[in-house]
């Protein structure tokens, strides 16, 4: 049986960072990865560097809603390709869900689909929780609460940032899921052995609500389950630019987003072609008021060298975001022409 582990967690809680660090560990060499992303343009597959792993990405919709088609078909196809030798002989599968996923349908499919159960075994669930915004997120978003409740291991991220409340969040999580160890982690640094190989998923040890959620999925699986449209509640869009972005423009742009959007911007992430260093993309991340310093990659992870920034939030207008970036770009270009070129990419790191 091939163990399947699920990494879940709300938007911006650190799933991709955690997975990226894990996949560099020797114990994770033969791992097939399935990533689901919310939005028209996926980025996570470019933000995670892999070596010889199989790497599969689901797109167009949320994995929690299309579970009985997309995920089941993908896992079935992987098993066939593994047996035929057309993919490396992976020994583990890790599924990273979108931050908006209700994990119950995922777990239900993995535990009850007859064909999948002949090949795969649900090994466990890892949930990431943000130590800065986690309390408010658990209070306001049912998905976040469910993600924490079903977990076998909870990874408490961003404990090193100003505003982190690790003790308060740990207390809240103890009420949601008293049986799950809470592991404080900085920048995704954790041994795979602390998260995986926890044995077959055991519903009996979870909060009673978890059993009720899975029972509801059994009813839903027997009928026609409609697709839940997250976009009716949240705004999701991607800004793509062919031309490079000046470092100072990007710094001002991130600062303006943090000041004007605040808690309404649930998640933004991007890979940016910076004019001063076009061969080394900058990876940017933001969650509500918190924006991390850009991380510079040594090279572009794919042939696509365009700037791509994904935004997910409440009542965030795409036209406003695009207009803001264009306005700042024009102002910086004017100042550069007036005073000469003197902006290095280090300005971006200082101002972000």
Structural notes for this entry:
This protein is of the alpha/beta class. The protein folds into two domains: 2-222, Rossmann fold (3-Layer(aba) Sandwich), CATH 3.40.50.300; 234-351, 2-Layer Sandwich (Hypothetical Protein Yjia, Chain: A,domain 2), CATH 3.30.1220. 36% of the residues lie in helices and 21% in strands. It has helices at 15-22, 44-47, 67-84, 103-112, 114-117, 134-140, 142-149, 166-176, 208-222, 247-261, 318-339, 346-351, and strands spanning 2-9, 31-36, 55-58, 92-96, 120-130, 153-157, 182-184, 235-241, 265-272, 282-287, 290-291, 295-296, 307-313. The strands form two sheets. It has a seven-stranded parallel sheet, with helices on both faces. Strand 10 and strand 11 form a beta hairpin. The longest helix has 22 residues, at 318-339. The termini are far apart. The relative contact order is 0.14.
């Amino acid at each position: 049986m091939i163990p399947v582990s699920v990494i879940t967690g709300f938007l911006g809680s650190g799933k991709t960072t955690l997975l990226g660090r894990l996949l560099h560990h020797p114990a994770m060499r033969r791992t097939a990865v399935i990533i689901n992303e919310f939005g028209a343009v996926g980025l996570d597959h470019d933000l995670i560097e892999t070596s010889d792993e199989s790497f599969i990405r689901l797109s167009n919709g949320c994995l929690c809603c299309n579970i009985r088609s997309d995920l089941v078909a993908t896992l079935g196809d992987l098993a066939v390709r593994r047996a035929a030798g057309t993919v490396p002989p992976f020994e583990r599968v890790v599924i990273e869900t979108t931050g908006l996923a209700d994990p119950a349908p995922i777990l239900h499919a993995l535990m009850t689909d007859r064909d999948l159960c002949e090949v795969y075994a649900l090994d466990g669930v890892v949930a990431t929780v943000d130590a800065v915004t986690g309390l408010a997120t658990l209070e306001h978003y049912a998905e976040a609460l469910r993600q924490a409740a079903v977990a076998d291991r909870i990874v408490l991220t961003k404990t090193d940032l100003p505003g982190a409340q690790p003790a308060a969040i740990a207390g809240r999580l103890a009420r949601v899921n008293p049986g799950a160890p809470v592991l404080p982690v900085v920048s995704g640094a954790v041994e795979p052995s602390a998260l995986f190989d926890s044995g077959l998923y055991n519903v009996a040890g979870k909060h009673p609500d978890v059993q009720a959620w899975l029972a509801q999925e059994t009813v839903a699986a027997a009928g026609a389950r409609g697709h839940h449209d997250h976009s009716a509640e949240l705004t999701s869009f991607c800004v793509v630019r062919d031309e490079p972005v000046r470092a100072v423009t990007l710094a001002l742009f991130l600062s303006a987003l943090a000041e004007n959007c605040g808690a309404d911007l649930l998640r933004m992430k991007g890979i940016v072609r910076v004019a001063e260093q076009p061969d080394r993309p900058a990876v940017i991340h933001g969650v509500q008021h918190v924006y991390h310093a850009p991380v510079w990659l040594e090279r572009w992870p794919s042939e696509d060298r365009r700037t791509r920034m994904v935004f997910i939030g409440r009542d965030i207008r795409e036209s406003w975001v695009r207009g803001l970036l264009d306005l700042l770009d024009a102002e910086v270009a004017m100042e550069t022409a007036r005073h000469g070129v003197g902006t290095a990419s280090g300005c971006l790191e200082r101002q972000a």
